[in-house]
Amino acid sequence: MARDRTQQRKRGGPAAGQIKRRNCFFCKEHVAEIDYKNVNQLRRYISEKGKIRSRRITGACRRHQVQIAQAVKRAREMALLPYVAEGTEGGGGGGRRDRGERGDRGDRGER
User: Fold this and answer.
1) CA–CA gap between residue 22 and residue 58 (Å, rounded)
2) pLDDT in tens, 60-80
3) Could you tell me which CATH number the domain at 21-83 has?
4) Which among 94, 96, 42, 90 has a CA at the least distance from the CA of 65?
């Protein structure tokens, strides 16, 4: 009997953390194509670092997410949007620039 109760709890229903599905803004507004010159609208789909946000974050459908990415790339090419955010210098992270301090990778010995 105790086993039946635990199995019933494992089955998730509406109370088990249901994910709210975001609807596509462009589908709601019946937008056929996304214009690369509308920079204010495109800024909503770019992160602080200048990266294009994913569908999961933006809530756009697949078709419109592809159009968003294409419009952002065109706007970058026309210098309407930056490729990277300003002021990211010294923003931590480390990256590959610290590898020189670790020593030469070629001194592992003879094989």
Assistant:
1) 8
2) 999 999 999 999 999 999 999
3) 4.10.640.10
4) 42
